[in-house]
Amino acid sequence: MALGPESLGGIPVALLIIWALGAAGWGAVLAGLRHGLRGRARGSALFAHVLTLAGAVFGCTVLGFGFLYVSIALTAEWWALALVTGFRPERLLDSGGLGRLAVWAVLTAAGILAAGALVL
């Protein structure tokens, strides 16, 4: 059976796009954390951010829940964080506080709903 044009090597193109956007969003947040944070908080934030992907894969494996849903959610979260903070994640805590957090939550929910409608 031949693979359809909507797949690349058996992986749906929509999933590859989500993964690419997720990787770019993860990298944007990582770059923001590396350049924006100083002192003791920097190491902890970078360590936690790097473990996010491994934790997501491990959590999905243990729970038996699909990684597609988590991929969509993480991609939306990272891009919403980058947009709300102007690619400087430390702003979420330094300035704006609850206002930025609320906008981040709304943008994340909107991104999850939009991506979910397109992909699922």
Record keyword descriptors for this entry.
mainly alpha, 120 residues, globular, 5 helices
Give a topology summary:
Layout: E1 7-8, E2 11-12, H1 13-36, H2 40-63, H3 67-84, H4 91-94, H5 97-119
Antiparallel strand pairs: 1-2
Helix pairs in contact: 1-2, 1-3, 3-5
SSE pattern, N- to C-terminal: EEHHHHH
Measured distance between first and last alpha carbons:
23 Å
The value of Rg in angstroms is 16 Å
What is the molecular shape? globular
Protein structure class: mainly alpha
Q: What percentage of amino acids are in beta strands?
A: under 5%
Strands side by side in the biggest sheet: 1-2
Number of strands: 2
Mean pLDDT: 87
What's the total helix number?
A: 5
| Sheet with the most strands, sense and barrel status | 2 strands, antiparallel
What percent of the residues sit in helical stretches (DSSP H or I)?
Answer: over 70%
Low-confidence stretches: none
Overview of the structural elements:
β1 (7-8) and β2 (11-12) form a beta hairpin. It contains five helices and two strands. The mean pLDDT is 87. It has 120 residues and is mainly alpha-helical. α1 crosses α3 (67-84) and α3 packs across α5.
